[in-house]
């Protein structure tokens, strides 16, 4: 359905001028979708640019605000020429951040530095924690009711940082804060489809836990369609999913981490949030959210999205012995990353 959404948008914008005229009147008739403003913070970056493009293609968006410390006037001018519904504006520098955020329904945050080979996501904490904290302070001030889609790493810590900032400003609503783990699901689906020789368009794999190394726990025992994979295959698929980010970091050899697949994943997740806000029933995606699924205060699992953000955090379902072991093994690292994020806000 998601691929179909993008396909239909591409189809619309590549039609002949005559067809476009006739389509555009039809488009107005079908576009009774509510007004929705989406803001991208870090919009001039490796993820930010293709993500801004994909959000421009989303017919559920009526206003698209592109913010970065620099470079956004150019990105916005470029993207704004695309003949789709949303009005695009670029904002650069601290003094324009408030205008970028005002009235936002969803704020997507891919602002911050990416990894280089040899680094862990936690190595990004030093720089990204401060960036995320100050952006969340601005969100608390200018659009406290927006859904926040946190992409900046380390997600296992940046989401707790955001929560603490919102709490300290008296605007925390746990239903509105999401760590974007969709890329883990995208990878698990791709790798599983390859191994199972299945049509990737019909593959589903939940991924739970967090978003770093062993904290990423794909549940291949719940994958559909079912395939008779050996224990060795499942182990290899699990490892490849957990190391997916590192695979890209190494292949890019110092030029950053996943940007294009992340933009795709971020666009899928934001689209799910928009559908939830608009009252579409049964929108379910995996995300790192405040949770009681385990004893940890934040955890990624399937989440039902609704008009106020998280409508229901779904349980883990039956786990294989291997997944149960993975779950217990990931808890210490995830706990300490969460605590590190919380402590940062209280000490700074
Ligand atoms: N959640 C996930 O699955 C994934 C997360 N990431 C993370 O996303 C982040 C961004 O990655 P890339 O786009 O490749 O990096 P990039 O360096 O290409 O872009 C980051 C952008 O953020 C901007 N920025 C820095 N400070 C800012 C501030 N205070 N306000 C607004 N913008 C600011 C920079 O100017 C730059 O344009 C990294 O932390 C990376 O680790 C990357 C891939 C997957
Ligand atoms: O690996 C990284 O640093 C970027 C990331 O989170 C991913 O690609 O999953």
UniProtKB/TrEMBL annotation:
Where is it mainly found? mitochondrion
Task: Tell me if rRNA-binding is a UniProt keyword of this record.
Answer: no
Q: Can you tell me which residues the record assigns to a coiled coil?
A: none
Listed GO MF terms: L-malate dehydrogenase (NAD+) activity
> Looking at the keywords, is Glycoprotein present?
no
User: Which residues participate directly in catalysis?
Assistant: 211 (proton acceptor)
| Family of the protein in this entry | Belongs to the LDH/MDH superfamily. MDH type 1 family.
* Protein name from the UniProt record: Malate dehydrogenase
Q: What is the species listed in this Swiss-Prot or TrEMBL entry?
A: Castilleja foliolosa
